[in-house]
Q: What sequence folds into this?
């Protein structure tokens, strides 16, 4: 088996909240191969962004292990970590908040080169920045402008340029489309897909929108209250979702077809429980239409049900086939 | 037949340090009794300003012209007292962000009672029982407990239900919902959309849904108007609009929504370019620079919103798409 680029083993993250412990992630394990795209879906509070921060070592501490190219990321000395950061880049949800308003576009996109390739001359750096901006669709005439002079979509292009200019091996995309207008979202989807191929990057693509994830991901991780509900190859997941939560997420996507849109839907029950006070047994049981007594008392183990496919549900074998 | 709300020739302008900016231009928009109309547009398209203007809620630097007839009253010229009797009572409003729209220091019960005491002249006992009934109607269980809670103690979906309850308290003739599901998770969005459908079935509620997400109106509205750069560019019954969009922008919006059944091997059909800057709207069709069908004619002369043969739909385009969608 080829070595995974990213190997997450039994990852748990907790935050202290008012003298209590909030378990943001509990016992996550997965691998990501070179050039692979793992989609991560779940509602707010599912731990998606904590996962993004974990694999970039943006958290002070974790439990379990994040192995990057075979090395324990959280065991790296500060100096080695600095070099490794070039390989791990991120695009955030809010492009306005993630760009320094006092820096020009060329300074923003050039900064990673200053840090990671200090040997570059000023002229070479400027050339590289201009080429990168052109690649994401921004003309050289815009280089000396400030973020507030751009639209949301253009700012997201700048943020993507800043991440990709470092030539990372892994690009983490944390809800990169959520803040954008619909007509612009598709542009950014296409840009990210093209850049991924050109630069041979792996992607950890985090989104609440399963239809968007379907376009990118070769595998999909479904999170609920910090736990893995299902992990599967894309086609398997979308054709035959096993976990009731995966089904609920798919069912909730509003249809555009006028007839389909009016069909009564099996709308998921209620809202996500508080991560401060997660339900006993299966964390999803309070919203699950299929829950039985066992689900209320016993935490389901994450079971391997087929090659590359895992599901954490007591009842997945007995449930009627999910929608295809 | 006269419609419940009839907005005509509405223009909204804002005075800014960079000069005057037109946010809404020559908009005609009506809502019939019992009808649900969607107003779809991207940020800056002017969709929210139409109703803020009609209800006298524009920012200080805003100016409005045109008419907004509600019953036998023009909302744009009637006096303040008349407007106060309408807002919150005959017209209910639901906004996107329930955290900022609910007063953080008032318990849910106090917020709801206030509406009833101001508009209904109800005593506190009656107001409380009415508030309990309305919470039940929007499916908030354990109403007595909820009334004693503060907004921050509720989840986002629950708060949005309180917002809806608050808009429905005085049995309004019209409810305007501005991005009512945008801040919510997709599962909660599905629940809130289902609630709106149910409320419509129960009471022939007249409803305007303002949204950037065309999928939100698909299962809810009877008719949809699409806005671009301050103008309505297409209006049609929802099925016709979704199946056979005539305006290239409407077509682009629909194509840009990722679907669970589209091919993942080909790039998505994106609308090129950026939404226009309101300060820089020019002559001709505002969409021309992003439009693959645009001709010289489009850049020179602005297309008027005109009805097609069926009489049920209008489009503002020199080169509209044909009967069937490619």
A:
């Amino acid at each position: 088996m080829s070595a995974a680029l990213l190997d997450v083993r039994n990852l748990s993250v907790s935050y202290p909240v008012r003298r209590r412990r909030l378990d943001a992630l509990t016992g996550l394990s997965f691998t990501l191969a070179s050039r692979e795209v793992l989609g991560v879906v779940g509602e707010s509070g599912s731990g998606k962004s904590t996962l993004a921060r974990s694999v970039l070592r943006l958290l002070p501490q974790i439990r379990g292990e994040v192995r990057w190219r075979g090395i324990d990321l959280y065991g790296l000395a500060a100096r080695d970590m600095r070099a490794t950061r070039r390989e791990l880049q991120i695009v955030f949800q809010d492009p306005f908040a993630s760009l320094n308003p006092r820096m020009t576009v060329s300074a923003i996109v050039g900064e990673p080169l200053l840090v990671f390739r200090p040997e570059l001359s000023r002229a070479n750096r400027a050339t590289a920045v201009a080429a990168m901006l052109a690649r994401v669709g921004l003309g050289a005439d815009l280089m000396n402008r400030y973020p507030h002079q751009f639209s949301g979509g253009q700012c997201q292009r700048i943020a993507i340029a800043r991440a990709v200019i470092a030539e990372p091996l892994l690009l983490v995309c944390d809800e990169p489309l959520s803040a954008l207008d619909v007509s612009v979202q598709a542009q950014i989807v296409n840009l990210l897909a093209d850049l991924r191929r050109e630069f041979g990057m792996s992607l950890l693509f985090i989104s609440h929108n399963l239809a968007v994830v379907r376009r990118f991901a070769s595998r999909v991780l479904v999170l609920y209250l910090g736990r893995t509900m299902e992990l599967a190859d894309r086609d398997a997941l979308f054709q035959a979702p096993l976990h009731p939560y995966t089904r609920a997420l798919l069912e909730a996507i509003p249809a555009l077809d006028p007839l389909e849109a009016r069909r009564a839907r099996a709308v998921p029950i209620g809202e996500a429980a508080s991560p401060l006070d997660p339900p006993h047994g299966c964390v999803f049981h309070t919203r699950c239409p299929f829950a039985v007594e066992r689900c209320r008392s016993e935490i389901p183990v994450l079971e391997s049900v087929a090659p590359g496919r895992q599901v954490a549900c007591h009842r997945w074998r007995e449930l009627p086939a999910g929608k295809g | 037949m006269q419609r419940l709300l009839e907005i005509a020739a509405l223009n909204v302008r804002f005075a800014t340090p960079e000069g005057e900016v037109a946010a809404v231009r020559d908009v005609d928009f009506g809502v019939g009794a019992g009808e649900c109309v969607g107003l779809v547009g991207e940020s800056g398209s002017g969709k929210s300003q139409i109703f803020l203007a009609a209800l006298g809620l524009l920012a200080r630097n805003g100016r409005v012209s045109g008419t907004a007839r509600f019953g036998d009253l023009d909302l744009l010229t009637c006096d303040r007292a008349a407007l106060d009797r309408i807002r919150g009572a005959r017209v209910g409003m639901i906004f996107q962000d329930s955290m900022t729209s609910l007063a953080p220091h008032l318990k849910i019960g106090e917020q709801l009672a206030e509406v009833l005491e101001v508009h209904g002249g109800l005593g506190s006992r009656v107001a409380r029982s009415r508030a309990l009934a309305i919470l039940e109607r929007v499916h908030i269980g354990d109403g007595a407990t909820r009334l004693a809670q503060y907004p921050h103690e509720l989840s986002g979906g629950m708060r949005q239900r309180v917002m809806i309850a608050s808009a429905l308290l005085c049995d309004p003739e019209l409810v305007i919902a501005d991005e009512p599901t945008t801040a919510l998770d997709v599962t909660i969005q599905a629940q809130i959309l289902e609630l709106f459908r149910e409320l419509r079935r129960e009471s022939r509620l007249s409803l305007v849904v303002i949204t950037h997400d065309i999928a939100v109106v698909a299962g809810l509205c009877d008719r949809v108007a699409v806005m671009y750069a301050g103008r309505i560019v297409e209006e049609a019954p929802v099925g016709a609009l979704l199946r056979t969009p005539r305006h290239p922008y409407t077509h682009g919006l629909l194509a840009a929504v990722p679907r669970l059944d589209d091919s993942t091997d080909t790039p998505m059909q994106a609308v090129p370019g950026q939404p226009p800057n309101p300060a820089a709207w020019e002559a001709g069709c505002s969409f021309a620079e992003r439009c693959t069908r645009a001709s010289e004619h489009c850049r020179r002369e602005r297309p008027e919103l005109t009805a097609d043969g069926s009489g049920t739909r209008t489009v503002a385009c020199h080169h509209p798409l044909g009967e069937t969608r490619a």
Notes: The two ends of chain A are 31 Å apart (CA to CA). The longest helix of chain A spans residues 182-199.
